Amino acid sequence: MVIAGLWFSGAAGCDGGTGPGTGGAGGEGGSGGSTMTEPRCSGTAEPCVGRSSFNCDGLLGCNEDGACLGEAAACESILEEVSCAQQYGCVWTPSKAKCEGAPAACGGFMKVDLCAAQSGCTWQSGVCGGYPYPCEQLTNEGLCYGQPGCDWQ
Question: What is the pTM of this model?
Answer without folding.
Answer: 0.54
